[in-house]
Task: inverse folding
């Protein structure tokens, strides 16, 4: 048999492949080194076959032959399928005949769509690779074969967040749409709808291609409106084409009954859940944690559950078509919905109860990832008509889940959704309306705040008339705390807070729904009673240190720094704001970082260091942006940023200010903290070095300092050589970095060497 320098049926597509260069390059690199088996996995419709074929095609010149075998629909005899494609007479021993035919070949075997025969494929490939040292293989399957020698390459959906016209998902839609309608193009008028479609499909290529084909029947705006119903909307335009529903049904049929039940239960969740929540949901059907974990792992293995990494955390989701299909097949959907809400309430109560301790980083990270499912829990209970539970979800852990992530306005919106679903009990009415009043009061909506406070007061009267004294006390504290937040009379509000502190005693420091001590300190500072306000801040800080509480400590430091800035005591402002940043590092409280950065920008303004100040303001703006928050003007936690910005812009000039601000806005949270604490950002890689053609002009002193930096001199050595202070050197370095758009002394040194003529 002559197989050398031959290619057996490698499919040829007329349409070009979009994206996937990294995956194809990785597979080629693996197979050109010591790896002999690469298994490509991924959910239905993600493009595994397309990637495998492209990778095999890229290796044509590296091997004598490429053999393609599609085993879909050919039963469990994988060896026979390979023999047929290679035109090998199987005789009695099919596998032996294949081995005999290719034992001396230097070739690549691509076994495509092995989902129906995973264990058989594994056994055959292992035997072939063992007996044929020159053969390498690629296998595609939603579920990877259990070969120990394989390298797994997971093909995921295209990126589908923060899309632009050049994103792979948008490019794929545009190319496939143009194939069906030559007049269609992605421009300013169609781009928003195309992005909405690509986001709704979660970047799954098959779904995007099927969506693009629908433009033969409807316009892009109509398609964007209907795309949420993917299984029915995204039917193939041609009868012979594969539908999204068929692809998902294939996955469903390969699951056990237990896995299908878990799949349906997981369809209740919004994307981005963690393993603990997934296992908690799975226990509804499986009963035990062990069985729940096993079922969930199988769904991950079968590429039903998609795994992705978000800011260092692993999160999971059912992609839209899989989620829609699971919901369709649910036997008891309301049971799953109620169980889901119970799971979310457990997590929220845990966050609230464990807040004042050493678990704050974990709590904030978890709740930041949970926010979509907290929203889902409110809307789910509201749809079920369970108003009390809807309010309970919104209110429980509100400070950790909503406020600290910049979502104060949003929690009031969700409370409105809860109240619209029915009439809550007096207990939850008092809590929900009180929280809404506080949020409205702190975001400049006094009329709405007073209305909500009146509703909370009426509900409190009903609770007080009942027999549950503990419930009445809890509601009274929350309603009175809301009254303080709404009150614009600082003196009256201060009296109320002092009364609350006396009544709560030690509980004031543990009852997270009121944060009474922090608000007491704020009112004291606002009234100019700094000594007493500082004592409260110090008390909060000391208690936080005892229990390992990082957030409340940093919060108190920021509040104290703000009060000192108002009083013009900038040395203390800088010390407290810097310490707050050190404590906040890695905590995941971007809004708190933003507050400290703005305070340090004000310090820079006062010290006539406008480049540093503008950079810090840009970094602070990015933290607000990342949190999705609107910057509220609520003294003393937020100083007068507008005044600081005007002064810096006037001192630096509009162009230089905008350049410095943009530099700061491009920093990550960690980089912005590094900049605030150390004056520079040490980048691992050289990026953004300006060329001579676009280099802004440095002052003679800045150029002199840059030259010394390039020579390896420290700031201290430069200061000694130029007879200036270290602080002055730091300012020159920073000004040079800002003007050049650089991020570190290393980049400045590289830039200077590139500008210096070689001799």
Result:
């Amino acid at each position: 048999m002559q197989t050398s320098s031959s290619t057996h049926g490698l499919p040829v597509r007329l349409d070009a492949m979009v994206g996937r260069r990294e995956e194809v390059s990785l597979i080629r690199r693996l197979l050109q080194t010591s790896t002999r088996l690469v298994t490509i996995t991924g959910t239905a419709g993600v493009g595994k076959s397309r990637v495998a074929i492209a990778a095999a095609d890229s290796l044509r010149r590296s091997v004598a032959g490429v053999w393609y075998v599609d085993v879909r629909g050919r039963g469990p005899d994988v060896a026979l399928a390979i023999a047929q494609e290679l035109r090998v007479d199987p005789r009695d021993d099919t596998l032996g005949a294949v081995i005999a035919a290719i034992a001396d070949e230097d070739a690549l075997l691509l076994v495509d769509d092995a989902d129906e025969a995973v264990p058989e494929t594994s056994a055959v490939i292992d035997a072939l690779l063992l007996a044929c040292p020159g053969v390498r293989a690629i296998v595609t399957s939603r579920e990877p074969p259990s070969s120990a020698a394989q390298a797994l390459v997971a093909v995921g959906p295209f990126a589908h967040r923060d899309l632009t016209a050049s994103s792979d998902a948008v490019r794929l839609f545009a190319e496939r749409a143009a194939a069906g309608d030559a007049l269609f193009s992605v421009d300013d008028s169609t781009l928003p709808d195309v992005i909405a479609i690509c986001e709704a499909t979660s970047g799954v290529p098959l779904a995007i291609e099927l969506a693009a084909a629908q433009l033969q029947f409807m316009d892009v705006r109509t398609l964007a409106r209907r795309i949420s119903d993917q299984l029915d909307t995204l039917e193939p335009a041609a009868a012979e084409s594969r539908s999204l529903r068929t692809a998902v049904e294939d996955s469903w049929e390969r699951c056990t009954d237990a896995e299908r039940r878990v799949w349906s239960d997981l369809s209740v969740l919004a994307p981005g859940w963690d393993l603990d929540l997934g296992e908690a949901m799975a226990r509804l059907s499986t009963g035990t944690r062990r069985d729940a974990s096993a079922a969930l792992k199988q769904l991950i293995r079968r590429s039903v559950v998609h795994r992705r990494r978000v800011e260092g955390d692993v999160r999971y989701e059912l992609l839209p078509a899989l989620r829609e299909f699971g919901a369709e097949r649910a036997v008891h959907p309301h049971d799953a919905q109620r169980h889901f809400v119970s799971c979310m309430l457990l997590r929220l109560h845990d966050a609230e109860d464990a807040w004042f301790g050493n678990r704050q980083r974990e709590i904030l990270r978890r709740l930041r990832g949970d926010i979509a499912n907290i929203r889902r829990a409110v809307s789910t209970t509201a749809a079920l008509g369970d108003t009390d539970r809807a309010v309970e979800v919104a209110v429980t852990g509100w400070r950790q889940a909503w406020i600290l992530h910049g979502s104060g306005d949003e929690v009031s919106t969700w409370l409105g959704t809860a109240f619209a679903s029915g009439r809550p009990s007096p207990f939850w009415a008092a809590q929900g309306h009180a929280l809404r009043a506080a949020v409205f009061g702190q975001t400049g909506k006094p009329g709405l705040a007073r209305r909500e406070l009146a509703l909370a007061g009426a509900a409190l009267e009903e609770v007080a008339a009942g027999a549950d004294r503990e419930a009445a006390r809890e509601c009274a504290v929350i309603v009175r705390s809301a009254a303080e937040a709404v009150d614009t009379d600082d003196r009256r509000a201060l009296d109320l807070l002092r009364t609350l502190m006396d009544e709560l005693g030690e509980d004031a420091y543990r009852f997270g729904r009121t944060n009474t001590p922090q608000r007491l300190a704020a009112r004291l500072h606002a009234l100019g009673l700094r000594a007493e306000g500082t004592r409260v801040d110090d008390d909060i800080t000391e208690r936080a240190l005892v229990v390992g509480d990082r957030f409340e400590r940093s919060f108190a430091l920021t509040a104290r720094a703000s009060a000192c800035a108002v009083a013009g005591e900038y040395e203390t402002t800088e010390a407290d704001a810097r310490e707050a940043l050190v404590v906040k590092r890695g905590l995941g409280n971007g809004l708190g970082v933003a507050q400290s950065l703005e305070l340090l920008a004000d310090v820079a303004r006062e010290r006539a260091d406008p480049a540093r100040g503008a950079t810090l303001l840009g970094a602070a703006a990015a933290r607000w942006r990342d949190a999705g928050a609107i910057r509220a003007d609520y003294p003393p936690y937020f100083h007068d940023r507008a005044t600081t910005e005007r002064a810096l812009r006037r001192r630096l000039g509009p162009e230089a200010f905008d350049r410095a601000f943009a530099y700061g806005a491009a920093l990550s949270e960690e980089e912005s903290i590094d900049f605030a604490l150390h004056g520079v950002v040490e980048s691992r890689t050289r990026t953004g070095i300006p060329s001579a053609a676009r280099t802004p002009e440095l002052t003679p002193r800045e150029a002199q300092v840059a030259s010394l930096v390039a020579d390896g001199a420290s700031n201290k050595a430069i200061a000694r050589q130029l007879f200036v202070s270290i602080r002055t050197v730091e300012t020159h370095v920073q000004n040079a970095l800002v003007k050049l758009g650089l991020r570190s002394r290393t980049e400045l040194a590289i830039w200077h060497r590139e500008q210096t003529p070689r001799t």
Q: What stands out?
A: The beta strands are 7-8, 37-41, 65-70, 107-112, 135-140, 151-154, 305-310, 313-318.
